[in-house]
Design brief:
Radius of gyration: 23 Å
Number of domains: 3
Shape: extended
Largest sheet: 21 strands, antiparallel
Strand content: over 45%
Helix content: under 10%
């Protein structure tokens, strides 16, 4: 309609229906999605996401979102859900919640997130904004995860030691996980119609668990 989206399907499945536009600013004012109805009121400016039942009727209380300068400013929802976002220099620096404020400090490559209870998450990003390193500290316990090329390469837990992850360089599928004691779980995949499926898991004791699929790629059987 007038060159604007009226409905959207992906692989034959409805993603967005009954799309309506605001006559003033031309932005979407209402749309029905599989799990919720989206409404935007330019005057507030609030966005309402009203949860729908499988039959398409309203179910439960809606989630309301308020935007300012094109950015999420506040959110209110069922069960006392309440978030107010703080910005500085175009970057999120804090989120107010009923339990206190989540603080975010750092720059484009390094971020530190501090929860109201004192838990800390430190994140290091590469030049493509992919995670390189995450360190979490909670009640004196420290966990660290290392990433390579956007994939988890190792994880060190305060009580379980280090686990190493191996990935297929071409397909990106997980190949193996080795724990601190040197025990390795291996994963085998096969390609079907352009999709790689997990067909077997080999445990450290060489016990194998197999997976079978139907013609539509749905899991039909687990074989031990």
């Amino acid at each position: 309609d007038q060159g604007r989206l009226s409905q959207l399907d992906v692989d034959g499945q409805p993603v967005m229906r009954n799309v309506r536009y605001d006559a003033t600013d031309g932005r979407i004012s209402e749309a029905v999605c599989p799990a919720f109805r989206y409404r935007r009121t330019p005057e507030t400016p609030a966005v309402t996401r009203e949860v729908l039942s499988p039959q398409g009727s309203a179910a439960g209380r809606p989630v309301n979102l308020w935007y300012a300068n094109g950015r999420l400013a506040s959110l209110r929802g069922p069960g006392g859900l309440q978030l107010d976002v703080q910005y500085a220099g175009g970057r999120v620096v804090g989120v107010n919640t009923p339990r206190g404020t989540i603080r975010v400090t750092g720059d484009d490559r390094r971020r530190t997130i501090t929860a109201p209870n004192g838990d800390v998450i430190q994140v290091v990003l590469d030049d493509r904004c992919r995670i390189q390193n995450i360190v979490t500290s909670s009640h004196g316990a420290r966990r660290e995860a290392q990433f390579r090329d956007g994939r988890l390469s190792s994880c060190t837990d305060f009580d379980q030691g280090e686990r190493r992850y191996e990935w297929d360089a071409t397909s990106g599928t997980l190949q193996a996980v080795t724990d601190a004691a040197g025990a390795t779980v291996r994963y085998r995949h096969e390609e079907h119609d352009g999709d790689r499926r997990l067909v077997a898991v080999v445990l450290p004791n060489q016990r194998s668990i197999g997976f079978k699929y139907d013609s539509k790629g749905r899991l039909t059987e687990v074989v031990e």
